[in-house]
Amino acid sequence: MGFLEPRLSLKVQQKQILTPGLVQMVSLLTLNKLELIDQIQQELVQNPVLEEGTEIVEVTQETVEHDIDLGAEAAKAAALVKKLGEIEQTLRSKNYENAEAQLKDLVRDYPREPRIFFALAKTASLAAADAIDEDLQAERLNRALGNYRLAIEASSPETDRALISRAHEAMGRIHAFLGNNSEAEKEFDEAIRLGAVAGGAFDAAVEGKKKLPPANR
Fold it and tell me: What CA–CA distance (Å, rounded) separates 197 from 200?
């Protein structure tokens, strides 16, 4: 009958148990921001006892909207680069009027974009080079100067140093051609002051200044 005797045994077992709360937390970690907002809103509808943490939802929504804005800005910038490339081809065919019209249309969509003003200035300068009438040539060159100035004003000294350098150097060349040597020297000096910026016009500005009459050197 020994087999009927009561015995006491101790068995130790280690288990990892995920509570319903932990399971929910893990599942939430796999969601992206838009899905998370949708999930929170669904839970609020299904369980009226829950209270919405407005600050968390607002911050999350702001983050999502910011990311969407960044994506939209990147797409807009890419569209601008593509359009400027197309206009560059138009300039090569010397269709200056068409190029200028397209650039003016772009200004409406990108009102503070320095590259558009720079392209407008370049267009006017190229058109002036092909002009036979001196008055027309001077008018186009002055229009180029105005657009180069707008390009500089719209530029950021932190991110657009090359464009600023090239604009100052181009203005220096135009002033030198028009006989405004003191103004030309100022513009060359501005380009030189920026230094040898990658993609800039430091060397051209140095050479341009050397070609000015001795009184301006």
Answer: 5
CA distance 58 to 152: 38
The CA-atom distances, in angstroms, between 111 and each of 70, 83, 116, 173, 204 are: 18, 15, 9, 27, 29
Q: Which two tokens stand for residue 212?
A: 């000015």
pTM: 0.66
Contacts 24+ apart (CB under 8 A), 65-71: 67/33
Nearest to 120 by CA among 105, 135, 133: 105
The answer to whether 119 and 87 are in contact (CB under 8 A) is yes
Q: What is the mean pLDDT of the chain?
A: 77
- For 165-199, give one letter per residue: b (16+ CB within 10 A) or e: bbbbbbbbbbbbeeebbebbbebbebbbebeebee
- What are 113-134's pLDDT values in tens digits? 889 899 899 999 989 988 888 8
Question: What is the C-alpha separation between 147 and 151, in angstroms, rounded?
Answer: 6
